[in-house]
Every structure is written in structure tokens, then in C-alpha cells.
Amino acid sequence: MFAGVAIEMLEIVGLLLAGGILLLWVCWKMWRELRMPPDAEAAAAHAPRKSFAQAAWEIVMADISMSLDNVLAVAGAARDHPAALVFGLGLSIVMMGVAASFIAGLLHRHRWIVYIGLAIILYVAGDMIWRGTLEIWLQLLR
After folding, report:
1. Residue 35 to residue 56: CA distance in whole angstroms
2. Among 20-24, 42-46, 87-91, 129-133, whose mean pLDDT is lowest?
3. pLDDT at 39
4. Structure confidence by residue, pLDDT tens digits, 109-130
5. How many CA atoms lie within 13 A of 82 on its CB side?
6. Which end of the chain has fewer CB within 10 Å, C or N?
7. CA pair distance 1, 46, nearest whole angstrom
8. 23, 125 in Cβ contact below 8 A?
9. Residue 11 and residue 45: Cα distance in Å, rounded?
10. What does the mean pLDDT of the chain come to?
11. For residues 76 and 127, is the Cβ–Cβ distance under 8 A?
12. Taking every pair of C-alpha atoms in the chain, what is the biggest distance, in angstroms?
């Protein structure tokens, strides 16, 4: 559903730029998490308990956010190729559904893989910002 909406929304002038900026923000959050010292992670683990409603709301918002981030990243990388978008989203769903614990363990053991993924997302965000800016300039020149 998000993919269909994302394809239609990417036709809106300026939204590509906004999506690129959003991905840049995601990159910044990931970078900060990667740079967090191990003792800060342990302190975060001992945070006060949440109610069921708070936990459910947080999970729903995280799922929506991650879904949008994923769709924006794949849509930005796929550009105008719907087949690449469908393949990329399908691959990400299969990887997270089937191999989530394996991938998490792999990323925990080999942190350099996370940095490669972060670099790819940063590249896609930069490309989206560049193309979105050009799109806006072309629209203004018309």
C-alpha cells in the first residue's frame, strides 16, 4: 500500500526533496545510535516500564515509520522503475521476515556491514535531494 502511494506521491514536485531530507534524518539517527557507547545502551535497557497502550502505540508508530523509510529508500533507489521497486520491497520483506534474527546477529558481529548500509542510504538520500532540487528548479523556470 505504501509503495503505491509512494509512487504516486513522488510525482508531486518537491516531495522527492522532502523524502531525501527525511532519509538524511534517518541516517543521522542511525549514525548517533552506532556511535552510542555500550554503557548508554545498558542504561537505556533499564528505562521505566511502559503501559500496554504506550508500548502498542510505540510499536505501531515504529512500524509505520520503518515502512515509510523503507518504501522511500527503495522508491528513491528504484527511481522510475516499478519492477525494481517491487523487487526491492519484496526482497526487504523476505529478508526481514525469514532472516531477521540471522541478519541481526550478522550485523551485531560485523559492525562494518551496518556502516556500508548507512553509506548506501546516505547516497540514496543525497541523490533524492539532488534530483528533488533539480525538479524544483526546473518547475520554477517554467
Report:
1. 28
2. 42-46
3. 62
4. 888 898 998 998 899 889 989 9
5. 6
6. C
7. 36
8. yes
9. 42
10. 80
11. yes
12. 56
CA distance 142 to 137: 9
Alpha-carbon span 82 to 120, nearest angstrom = 20
Decide: residue 114, CB within 10 A, 0-12 exposed, 13-18 middle, 19+ buried.
middle
Between CA 107 and CA 36 the distance in angstroms is 16
Contacts of 69 (CB under 8 A, 6+ apart): 22, 23, 26
The reply to whether the predicted model has a pTM over 0.85 is: no
139 φψ region: left (φ > 0), alpha (ψ -120 to 50), beta (else): alpha
Crossing angle of the two packed helices 82-109 and 111-141, in degrees rounded to 10: 150
